[in-house]
Amino acid sequence: MFSGEQSEERTGMFASVLSAAIHGMEVSPIQVEADVSNGLPSFTMVGFASAQVKESQDRVRTALKNSGISLPPKRITINFVPADIKKEGAGFDLPVAAAVLAASGILNPDLLKGILMVGEVSLNGEIHPVSGILPRVIRAGEMGLRFCMIPYENLKEGLLIKKVPVIGVRTVEEMIFYLKNPHKFLVKEGELEESEEKNTIDFSEIYGQEGARRAAEIAVSGFHNILLIGPPGAGKTMLAKRFPTIMPALTEAEKLELTKIYSIAGLLSSQRPLISKRPFRNPHHTSSPQALTGGGRNPRPGEITLAHRGVLFLDELPEFSRASLETLRQPLEDRKILLSRASGLYCFPASFMLVAAMNPCPCGYYPDMNRCNCTSGEVTHYLGRVSRPLLDRIDLCADIPSVTFSQITEEKKQETSREIQKRVELARSIQEVRYKKEGVQFNAELHDSQIKKYCICTGEGKRLLEMAFEKMQLTARSYHKVLKTARTIADLEGTETIASSHIGEALSYRALDKKYWN
Known about the structure:
Structural class: alpha/beta
Strand order of the largest sheet: 11-14-17-10-18
Radius of gyration: 28 Å
């Protein structure tokens, strides 16, 4: 089909094209070089390629044959530059095929200059989608490349970056044809359908639990971590699932940031790739530390990173392994995860809101001695599964009592998620203006020096804090958590100075862990 063009377009025995590898959240440009020379027919790959990448030689050779393209019976050598970065995945199939075709004289090597290619090639010549297209397109834009050539099924994802032209290809034949006439097929932007799913759950469905609803509003307003504790069936999980419904809408920058994370994780929809809702991740309590933090030979985002800008809900908190729970300590403090591997250091974003739920004892009814049949040792052992350092990193602890019959059957109209969301958005806007030069977004992110600057208390509030620090035996971290929570309560009321009433309410959410753990 294309063999007749060889003598006409042949310009040399060497060709190269740019591709990219993903390591954690970073994108590394990879130059794919091909050389076709005289010698025994062979296909060799060098440049620190994984076994999965080396398999592409068989896929590419067979795909070209089934596409009617005859490669010369010569020695073919593929080199990946730089050689000190390990190449993983099937996304190098397409650039390998293009480089081989150019080095064989079927394509003009000049056509491959200034473009980035990625895609998986099947044996019949079709090109399949791969994960991580969005960060690669972003990197291509930063490098000032002419355009990107990606699988057609990834086209909508590639179009999210409007400044970078992309071409979506379905087959190897299309790839060759489009490379010869790229300007006819470049797409700079398209109509992207954002998910317009309406919330099927709402805070109006929760009856009673006024204290818990108030705690939820405070937690979301300042992006504070919260622990819900109470007996079975009280509504802890029901409440937690409604947290995203009162969170402010994502900004355009946050949407793109989340979409990049989910692209690398391979969790995007091909039809609606843009993430427009705040994530709500609910991993099972059997999840391993690696599932939470991310991992693998080439580390990918875990549940903590997938909950970035949203909610990480841990139901039945004491049932998680101690190792899994302790992995939360560093990301809760630093808002990022650092994974050290033999292949390098990987950094993943982790600015999430932790919502945890648990029973106070194995049977769930402590301290109600009429219903609880657990011994004091069993209760102590159960609560001891949650370490004090982890509790120190939780800002609010809300008691969820059992709902009474009168509350369930009450006909009084409950406050909707939208009504609560309006107050949350107002409090968030106050924080946005206050911290626009500080590099933080929410009260929960304040550092020690910023706490002293922005958490100014009245004289009465300071005295109350001093008394609480001694009597409740607060740590320095707990003390700062109380101040940041009080700052959020004051923002909800629209006051700049933190009063004793704000301190008192914030302390009430720290006192609950003393009730159970002491």
